[in-house]
From TrEMBL:
SUPFAM superfamilies: Thioredoxin-like. Keywords: Membrane, Transmembrane, Transmembrane helix. PANTHER family: GLUTAREDOXIN, GLUTAREDOXIN-LIKE PROTEIN NRDH. The chain crosses the membrane at residues 21-42. This is Glutaredoxin domain-containing protein.
């Protein structure tokens, strides 16, 4: 929201200075930045304990992520519609999720961390994650 507001203010300034093309370009740039860094692009996050419970029941991987992470965004975009099949945990909203990531990564909050069958994988290839979805539970 802040990016859109800043972009709107800058675009208004350009528009008032007689540069409508620059105003439109700035507004589009800031809107794109807002969309790319938005947590709304990701499937709805759940808590770490709920994600682990669901994963144990259905065998689907758990993805620990945080807003603004370019590697998380890359994973999300490359998974496409398959991303909704995973259990997503936002580590900035869930302390248990952040603790699970630190435990898997020598104390670092390195994301995305994908847990498949109880084994953590840090920043895995999206194609590999997609393969895990097709495996039987």
């Amino acid at each position: 929201m802040l990016l859109v507001l800043c972009g709107s203010a800058m675009a208004t300034g350009k528009l008032l200075n007689g540069a409508p093309g620059a105003a439109v370009a700035l507004l589009l740039l800031f809107a794109l930045l807002a969309a790319v860094t938005s947590p709304l692009l990701f499937p709805r996050s759940i808590g770490a304990s709920e994600a682990q419970r669901r994963s144990a029941a259905d065998g689907r991987p758990v993805v620990y992520w945080r807003p603004g992470c370019t590697y998380c965004l890359r994973l999300r975009l490359r998974l496409g519609r398959h991303a909704r099949q995973l259990h997503w945990v936002n580590i900035w909203r869930d302390p248990a999720g952040a603790a699970a990531v630190r435990a898997a990564n020598d104390g670092n909050e390195t994301v995305p961390t994908v847990v498949v069958a109880g084994r953590p994988h840090t920043n895995p290839d999206p194609a590999w994650v997609r393969e895990q979805l097709s495996r039987p539970a």
